[in-house]
Every structure is written in structure tokens, then in C-alpha cells.
């Protein structure tokens, strides 16, 4: 489903929900929420638990889009918001607090996909439905899952890297994967390997990066350069834009010409798009986060109101080890210098004024972005 199609579906569903008397919500940065109950009935409480802030998307994109959509379609909702700062124990405490505050539904993006089953079990004890958001909670009876086709993300990254390496046969690469506690990272890696392994490319070094930390990715890349040799690395698979930034920083520090060493990424972060336009990063994966967050908001509001999901929203199933989970699956898009204008710029995912500021003005002009 394309971002534009999902937006149209979301708007239609929102109008249908509004016609049924649903309504907007307040929130509280400390996680308590501020009640905005109206004459239509008792306020519904929606818990939104995000995993971390090192990846800029969560505070810059996911949270505001989710909150805005809930506010649009639900007058008598309030949001219990928390960010776990990449601390699984902290997220467990935040979930317990949401249960205590009487959450009607929990939207959970887990720090640790496996240990988060404890959060789900606790919610179930209080009859609170759980939506697994963006990252899949494994081996737990979640009610719904919403994300992108994450193996496809890895395939897009691997395919793009091979294209940049003219097929890859005989070339040497380094793999900088994501966090070993994130189930999505495992899927990205599996998708990438499904493309890279049969290609003839040689994976000289491969790392799983704790916490998705750019600093740790830089350290890993430093180790790879020392071990393999800076003249023997032809490309870098980096699982997201943060790890790509760390790998690129390490290569620059070693005096390597990063414009000749294609590096992948994911999330279409502003800094990554600027690097792509400047030729320092080869590609990223654009996941239309706003439609993802808006669809999660629609689903959460419907569940909180005791209703079925909006028609057409759920479009698949995913096995999380506990069973087949009804899912909303969105399609990722590979972004290179050639299609920046027609993807993230066209969708207003990045602001042109920010993208083309300062030293990047000439790069934007060369790409036809003004």
C-alpha cells in the first residue's frame, strides 16, 4: 500500500469514526496525560510507549503524528506517553504505570522484543489490548502489529548496495547491523543476507550494534578498517542512518574517500538525505512514518472505544512465535540521489529549507531541489 493510498484510507476511516462520535485527546510529557473528557462519556486512555530517542524519528515523527491523529478523531481520549531511553527495565516500569493509570489500550514499541512479552502478559492480566508498534513483540499474545515489511527493508538495502558495486562479485564489504535486542534488526539482517550471500560479495566483518548507537557503529567500523585495511573495503551495509553516520565518520577519520564507498541506511533522516545529496551515503530506506503512526492511532482509538478496526486497515498477518497476528504492513521505498525529490521531498517528509541549508544548497540545486 503506498503512502498516499494509506493516507486516503486513514482520512476516510477518520471521517467514519468521527461520524460515530469519536473524539481528541490531550497528553502529558511526563506520561500522566491531561484529561479532556467531554459530555460524550468517560475519557479513554491510550498508552504510547516508545523505545528510545537516539533514532531521531521517534520524537520528531512518530510521537507527534500519533498524538495529532488521536486528537483529530477522539475528543474524549487522553494519551499516557513514555519513552524508555533504550532501557528495557525502564519500559517495564512505564508499562506498569500505564496499567495503574487505567489504560484502555497499549501501543508498545519494545526496547527488547523478547523481554517485552512480560509487558504484554502484565497488560493482559488487566484486560488491556496491546498493539505492537513498529517492532514486533515476540512470543506473546499481542492483539495487532503495525510496521513495514522489514525483511523487504533488508532486501532493498542489499540490492541497492549490489547495484552500487556493479553486482558485488569479488567485492569486499562490512556489515553494521542493528541492535541484537530488536526483532526488526534481525529481519533487516535476514533480508540483506538473502540478497548478499548468493551474490559473490565477501563479507569481511559483521557486527550487531548495541542500542543502534552511532558511536558504537563508528567503533565497529574503526575495528573493521584496522582488521581488513582501508584500501580493501568496497562497500558498507549499515542497517539505519545512525549506524551509517557512525561508519562514514570512521571512514573519513581513516582518510577514506566515502564518495567511492557506497553505504546503505534506513529511516530517511535529514542528515542522511544531506549525505546522499553530497555523495557520502549511497541510499536510505524511506518508511512513511506519518501514515504508520496515524494508522496506529486509528487502531488504538477504535480498540479503546470497543470497536473493530477501520475497514481495510488490517491487511496481513505476521507470526510472532505465539500465533498469527493481524497486521498492518506498509511498503518501504529505497531512496538514492536520483529519487530524493520524488519521494521524501514530494511527501514533505523533510523540509526543503532545512535540507538545502548552508553547504547543501549546491547539492540540492544539482538534484533539482530548490
Could you walk me through the main structural features you see in this protein, from its secondary elements to its overall organization?
InterPro entries: Bact_Solute-Bind_Prot2 (IPR050555), Peripla_BP_I (IPR028082), SBP_2_dom (IPR025997). Keywords: Signal. It comes from Svornostia abyssi. Residues 1-24 form the signal peptide. The protein has 370 residues and is α/β, with parallel strands linked by helices. It folds into two domains: 3-148 and 288-330, Rossmann fold, CATH 3.40.50.2300; 150-286 and 333-366, Response regulator (Rossmann fold, 3-Layer(aba) Sandwich). The protein has helices spanning 3-19, 57-73, 88-100, 117-125, 150-164, 183-196, 214-228, 241-253, 270-278, 289-304, 341-345, 352-355, 361-366, and strands at 25-28, 44-50, 77-83, 105-108, 130-133, 144-148, 172-177, 202-208, 235-238, 284-286, 316-319, 324-330, 333-335. Helix 1 runs parallel beside helix 10, helix 3 (88-100) runs parallel beside helix 4 (117-125) and helix 5 runs parallel beside helix 6 (183-196).
Hey, roughly how much beta strand do the residues contain?
15-25%
Helical run tally: 13
Name the structural class. alpha/beta
Shape: globular
CATH topology name of the largest domain, in short, is Rossmann fold
Low-confidence stretches: 1-40
Q: Helicity level, as a percent range?
A: 40-55%
Largest sheet: 8 strands, mixed
H/E element string? Answer: HEEHEHEHEEHEHEHEHHEHEEEHHH
Pfam families: Peripla_BP_4
Signal peptide: 1-24
Protein name: Sugar ABC transporter substrate-binding protein
Subcellular location: Cell envelope
Amino acid at each position: 500500500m503506498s503512502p498516499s493510498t494509506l493516507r486516503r484510507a486513514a482520512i476516510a476511516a477518520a471521517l467514519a469514526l468521527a461520524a460515530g462520535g469519536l473524539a481528541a485527546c490531550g497528553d502529558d510529557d511526563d506520561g500522566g496525560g491531561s484529561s479532556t473528557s467531554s459530555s460524550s462519556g468517560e475519557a479513554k486512555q491510550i498508552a504510547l510507549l516508545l523505545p528510545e530517542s537516539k533514532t531521531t524519528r521517534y520524537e520528531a515523527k512518530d510521537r507527534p503524528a500519533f498524538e495529532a491523529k488521536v486528537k483529530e478523531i477522539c475528543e474524549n481520549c487522553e494519551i499516557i506517553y513514555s519513552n524508555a531511553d533504550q532501557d528495557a527495565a525502564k519500559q517495564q516500569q512505564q508499562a506498569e504505570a500505564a496499567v495503574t493509570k487505567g489504560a484502555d489500550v497499549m501501543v508498545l514499541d519494545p526496547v527488547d522484543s523478547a523481554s517485552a512479552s512480560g509487558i504484554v502478559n502484565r497488560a493482559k492480566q488487566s484486560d488491556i489490548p496491546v498493539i505492537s508498534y513498529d517492532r514486533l513483540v515476540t512470543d506473546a499474545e499481542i492483539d495487532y502489529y503495525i510496521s513495514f515489511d522489514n525483511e523487504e527493508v533488508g532486501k532493498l538495502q542489499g540490492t541497492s548496495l549490489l547495484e552500487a558495486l556493479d553486482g558485488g562479485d569479488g567485492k569486499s564489504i562490512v556489515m553494521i547491523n542493528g541492535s541484537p535486542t530488536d526483532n526488526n534488526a534481525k529481519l533487516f539482517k535476514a533480508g540483506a543476507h538473502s540478497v548478499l550471500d548468493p551474490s559473490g560479495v565477501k563479507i569481511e566483518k559483521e557486527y550487531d550494534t548495541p542500542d543502534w548507537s552511532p558511536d558504537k557503529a563508528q567503533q565497529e567500523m574503526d575495528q573493521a578498517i584496522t582488521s581488513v585495511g582501508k584500501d580493501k573495503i568496497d562497500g558498507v551495509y549499515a542497517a539505519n542512518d545512525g549506524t551509517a553516520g557512525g561508519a562514514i565518520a570512521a571512514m573519513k577519520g581513516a582518510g577514506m574517500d566515502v564518495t567511492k564507498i557506497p553505504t546503505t541506511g534506513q529511516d530517511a533522516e535529514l542528515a542522511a538525505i544531506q549525505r546522499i545529496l553530497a555523495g557520502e551515503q549511497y541510499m536510505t530506506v524511506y518508511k512513511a512514518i506519518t501514515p504508520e503512526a496515524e494508522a496506529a492511532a486509528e487502531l488504538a482509538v477504535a480498540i479503546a472505544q470497543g470497536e473493530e478496526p477501520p475497514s481495510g486497515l488490517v491487511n496481513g498477518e505476521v507470526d510472532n512465535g505465539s500465533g498469527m497476528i493481524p497486521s498492518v504492513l506498509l511498503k518501504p521505498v529505497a531512496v538514492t540521489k536520483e529519487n530524493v525529490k520524488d519521494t521524501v521531498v514530494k511527501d514533505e517528509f523533510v523540509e526543503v529549507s532545512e535540507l538545502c541549508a548552508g553547504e547543501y544548497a549546491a547539492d540540492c540545486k544539482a538534484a533539482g531541489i530548490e
